[in-house]
Amino acid sequence: MKLYAAFTVVLAVGISSTAAFAEGSGRLEKIRQSGAITLGHPETSVPFAFLDENQKPVGYTVEICQEVAAAIKMKLGLDKLEIRYNPVTSATRIPLISNGTIDLECGNTTNKLERHDFVSFAPTTFVAQIVLIARKESGLDVDDLASFRGKTIAAQAGGQNFKTVSELNAKNNYGITVVATNDIAQNFLMVESGRAAAAANDDGLAYASVASSKDPGAFVISTKGLELAPYGIVEPKDDPEFKKVVDDAVIDLMKTGRIATLYEKYFNTPIPPKNINLKYPMSTALKKALKHPTDSGDPADYQ
């Protein structure tokens, strides 16, 4: 019932906001008149969007959005464009885009086809895999979900990871108990403390969790993903002029190699505030997406 209610709220907000923007001049004119752009961001999604030691939003996607904001400033011919930041959660990010509170959402949101009813996405800037984390000492094969038959796997409530593991479990009769967790930290704690045999998460977040742990060498992460999940900056729906400016800026960052540079900064070098290094080379799927930009929400397009 709660999920249905939340969906209804998002739908209502999306419809009313779409009508409002259709009557107005769109986000570009709003930004021009206000002299400001508001970026929504999660606060704990390392390395995509998180807070540094000064409680300032930083991260791979945050920096891409900052570059996009600079392109918007140039497009509008503004002498100055203030960047405002607004924290979001998985529950609030789409409604806040739809009602105009934020102009872009800069985190780790999966571009899913069903979300296109409410928002748009910029060209994909990360292609995640749903992976499993387990303790090495368990001896379990993280590349084979069947090896967890009869065991417990933790996954965030309401997320794609929970849905994917649950569906594969039911389809193959593995008898796995899928335990819902509240956030990334609790999800990893379940396997770290031994309360779950594994934790399911997107690979970037999984590598960040392991790298941030007291003993990174005690864990193993699967290399064979359960499902691909393209991430994109979230944009308002039905605003083609704004979308074109944002998309062109993202594509330019791809062509110039700037996004590849940001990837190295956040995935293969120490990052603040704990100076963790994910040591995670760029995947073949992401290299393909950067070479051939697409805003597709179909995982098959990233194979």
Topology:
Elements: H1 2-23, H2 26-34, E1 36-41, E2 44-45, E3 49-51, E4 57-58, H3 60-76, E5 82-87, H4 93-98, E6 104-105, E7 119-121, E8 126-135, E9 152-156, H5 160-172, E10 177-181, H6 184-192, E11 198-202, H7 203-212, E12 219-221, E13 228-231, E14 234-236, H8 240-255, H9 258-267, H10 284-291
Parallel strand pairs: 1-5, 1-6, 9-10, 9-11
Antiparallel strand pairs: 2-3, 3-4, 7-14, 8-11, 8-12, 8-13
The computed structural class is alpha/beta
What is the chain-wise order of helices and strands?
A: HHEEEEHEHEEEEHEHEHEEEHHH
Low-confidence stretches: 1-24
Number of helical stretches of at least 4 residues? 10
Alpha-carbon Rg, integer: 19 Å
Overall pLDDT confidence: 90
- Major pleated sheet: 6 strands, mixed
CATH homologous superfamily title of the largest domain? Periplasmic binding protein-like II
- Shape, per Cα inertia axes: globular
What report would you give on this structure?
Helices cover 40% and strands 19% of the residues. With 303 residues, the chain is α/β, with parallel strands linked by helices. The chain has two domains: 2-125 and 232-302, Periplasmic binding protein-like II (D-Maltodextrin-Binding Protein, domain 2), CATH 3.40.190; 129-228, D-Maltodextrin-Binding Protein, domain 2 (3-Layer(aba) Sandwich). Strands 8, 9, 10, 11, 12 and 13 form a six-stranded mixed β-sheet that branches. The longest helix has 22 residues, at 2-23. It is globular. Residues 1-24 have low confidence and may be disordered.
